[in-house]
Amino acid sequence: MPKKAIKKFDAKKHFVSKPAYEVVPAEEVKGRRGAMTLMSNKLVPGSNFYIETGWVFGMPDPNPHIHEHVHDYDEIVIHLGTDPQDQEELGGEIEFMVDGQPLIINKSSAVYVPKGVKHGPLVWKKYSKPHLEFTIMVGAGSLAEADPGGHQKLIKRSRKNGENR
Q1: Which CATH class is domain 19-160?
Q2: How far apart are CA 76 and CA 49, in angstroms?
Q3: Can you give the residue ranges of every domain in the chain?
Q4: What would the pLDDT profile of 72-89 be if each residue is shown by its tens digit?
């Protein structure tokens, strides 16, 4: 019986060195840098993950700017401190509502939010150092599917109602 030829893995096709800047916030937010998309089906076809991250470099204003929303996909929300001397130190304190229950985030941490669970708002209570916020959407391969922060639905609704955004 002849052996099947094994297709060689091409690592370069799975490597993202130029992120996309496709996440549009529902409103301008001071203290935040525009989010980078690091993984999507557009960047790596067939990956079926949506990963985005953004810097928090000051007290966000408005606060909250991430409101209650829900996804059709599981989501992992990561807040990561950037102090190399104390990698657990977040550099802020955030109240994150998940299914109506408050979580206080003041250390580098991750929250698993199953699909269909309402989450948000995120309210920054304190800010002392820059930190990163990541979201990982398992099974969502595009911005439209992932809709991190629920922003895209808000923008669509605003345009439908004739508001400028």
Answers
A1: mainly beta
A2: 11
A3: 19-160
A4: 999 999 999 999 999 999
